[in-house]
Amino acid sequence: MKKLSARRRHPLAALVVLLLALACTGGLYAAFAPADKAQADETAQSLAIEEGKKLYAVGCASCHGTGGQGTTDGPSLVGVGAAAVDFQVGTGRMPAQQPGAQVPRKKVIYSQAEIDQLAAYVASLGAGPAVPSEEKYGPEGADTAKGGELFRTNCAQCHNFTGKGGALTHGKYAPTLEDVDPKHIYEAMQTGPQNMPSFPDTTLSEQNKKDIIAYLDAVNGDDTVDPGGLSLGGLGPVSEGLFGWIFGLGACIAVAVWVAARTAKAKKS
Fold first, then answer.
1. Are residues 109 and 170 in the same domain?
2. What residues bind heme c 2, as annotated (predicted)?
3. Nearest in space to 130 (alpha carbons), one of 141, 139, 122
4. With contact defined as beta carbons under 8 Å apart, do 170 and 180 qualify?
5. 158 is in an annotated binding site
6. pTM of structure
């Protein structure tokens, strides 16, 4: 009988070696792998908030307060969300030139990167609607006919049935929706700027908002042709009635005067 030259291995030795190898591999990966994507995103968001805070202190704090709490010249921004900032600043309404019943749309003075930083800072003050992604307001999957029905039910009272805008009370007005970025229309429905009520997802779903935007693009697009001929500005029955009174009734009066003059002349002769 041969003498054993080595001691017999324990049955669990291979398993122990495998676990040690896995532990070493994991440790090396943790030490040398790049930073986790979530951590990188968090760092970028923190930097955006810091830069936004600097921009806010210069351009917004005088009206809205140093911490966004609001003043007599401007409302609180706590809880309005990034979408409200993207709309107000992205359409040039903010910073406002002066207080008034209505802040008009004007030239944008901030770059999109600066607007994103301002939005990040204001969003950090309190939870609110986020800036929508393009898939939420894009034309894919939109129902234009349904959008028209929803718009006439919820929006036409102020904006007119084709989005041409209209007058309100005490110097306020509903602005035209022509040449407005679809993202800003979506954000306006989300946040309810100025005199407009808000339409959260519980009132108008994301699909409803997409349908309304598709309808507005259909009636106000560059290649839109009015099948009825002269649209009279698309302002509805008031402008059409006024046109009828001035030109239609005026033409009738002119014809009546002409007939009366001809009749009088015929009697004299």
1. no
2. 155, 158-159
3. 122
4. no
5. yes
6. 0.73
